Amino acid sequence: MGNWVVNHWFSALFLAVWLGLNVFLFVDAFLKYEKADKYFYTREILGFCSRTLRKQLDHNLTFHKLVAYMICLHTAIHIIAHLFNFHRYSRSRQAADGSLVSILSSLSHREKEGGSWLNPIQSPNMTVEYVTFTSIAGLTGVIMTIALILMVTSATKFIQRSYFEVFWYTHHFFIFYILGLGIHGIGGIVRGQTEESVNESHPHKCAESFEQWDAHGARCRRPQFEGHPPESWKWILAPVVLYIFERILRFYRSQQKVVITKVVMHPSKVLELQMNKRGFSMEVGQYIFVNCPSISLLEWHPFTLTSAPEEDFFSIHIRAAGDWTENLIRAFEQQYSSIPRIEVDGPFGTVSEDVFQYEVAMLVGAGIGVTPFASILKSIWYKFQRADHYLKTQKIYFYWICRETGAFSWFNDLLTSLEQEMEELGKVGFLNYRLFLTGWDSNIAGHAALNFDKVTDIVTGLKQKTSFGRPMWDNEFSTIATSHPKSVVGVFLCGPRTLAKSLRKCCHRYSSLDPRKVQFYFNKENF
């Protein structure tokens, strides 16, 4: 009786683990869907909700990773439980002592004898490996485990940055994982006593008298077992339907014609594309997915829009950072060949959309991470041109950190125009921008020092002088907190994780405990 209960306890454990795992899969699939189209749907729905609630949407990648860790944990528990249970199944099948375990394990697998088996190991000579690779549950379990291992191991930062194609293609093994999950329970390897058999031969009453089962005049009959019906399809149906709908929608949008109106090659191997597309509408700081079929039919890469909503085109800046981007830049550099065809999907929302909801904004861009803030600064220029009286933002602090001097030329004209516009409108104090050069040598620093008294900076040609080294963030936050003692300050970053960690700490450190005084809210771009 003890072994019988233990075996059924393990079966109950399988069901509980799978149900819990499927809940995670359902939520994870929904978050994937929300991530892909959150601007069009979720962010618009929550547009009138609190800032704190909207900000949670921008942690969807972090949630996606946490759910992946939980799936790995539950998968490991599920496999370990199966290993223990199959070890018990094997011992029970080999037992020949006439015990309850031996009798239950010897129930026939043949349909003509009722097929009321409990132990999936049909004979004492059958191995666990044979059952694993010949049963539906075992084979799909192996396939799902291999797919999960490949997806997780190829999703590391090193693989994503150095071998993006490996990450991209292996991550699509989730299709095999979902298919396996849907049919994993069809074989009915997790079994229980039928309702009719329980009413006729309840285990609490009949387990001790198993030797008299089927005897003439006995109250207990030989128990009948059946496989539990598959349940996982119920949990994956909704996210699969949402995912298919989202893929169809994205395919339709991506097939709309994109016209490239201007191509600009900037220093430091940065390509600027200005494009038009019928019905395209954007907000500041949003991004699009770009595909170039001549390079790869399946690869889509995200790029932040650097144009303003007020402009009659949309633009992106692409820095060479891998095989795909290098091939794309090389294709546009070839003067005597036709312009490659580009497909665009989007735009999609980011945290930068909320920049004009703050009275004071700190914009921090590292290298090419300046792109979302270029869109914001352009939009500000247009708002001043059109005398927009609904602009809530009163002050912007802009920090741009670059390794090489050539990078500053990407948006040099924009900063020059903003300087002139602020002077003409008498709003010189509205924009406070600082440029930091981290990759400098003594020659550059000495040349800048000799020409420090000139009106314009020797490095950028702007009125604002370039600083050498990195910002002292404690000093910057302290100054802003002193200058705006009762303001809500939005801190926006597009840059590396180490910088995000420093800025997040400063936001906590310099936010007042009094909610009526200065508060810093940290926002980071995530792709």
UniProtKB/TrEMBL annotation:
CDD domains: NOX_Duox_like_FAD_NADP
GO-annotated molecular function: metal ion binding; oxidoreductase activity, acting on NAD(P)H, oxygen as acceptor
Main location: membrane
Catalytic activities: NADPH + 2 O2 = 2 superoxide + NADP(+) + H(+)
Keyword vocabulary terms for this entry: Cell membrane, Glycoprotein, Heme, Iron, Membrane, Metal-binding, Oxidoreductase, Transmembrane, Transmembrane helix
Annotated localization: Cell membrane
Bilayer topology: Multi-pass membrane protein
GO cellular component: plasma membrane
Transmembrane region(s): 12-31, 66-84, 130-154, 166-190
InterPro entries with a match to the protein in the record: Cyt_b245_heavy_chain, FAD-bd_8, FAD-bd_FR_type, Fe3_Rdtase_TM_dom, Fe_red_NAD-bd_6, FNR_nucleotide-bd, RBOH/FRE, Riboflavin_synthase-like_b-brl
SUPFAM superfamilies found in the cross-reference section: Ferredoxin reductase-like, C-terminal NADP-linked domain (SSF52343), Riboflavin synthase domain-like (SSF63380)
Positions of the FAD-binding FR-type domain: 247-354
Name used for this protein in its record: NADPH oxidase 1 isoform 3
Organism field: Daubentonia madagascariensis
Lineage: Eukaryota, Metazoa, Chordata, Craniata, Vertebrata
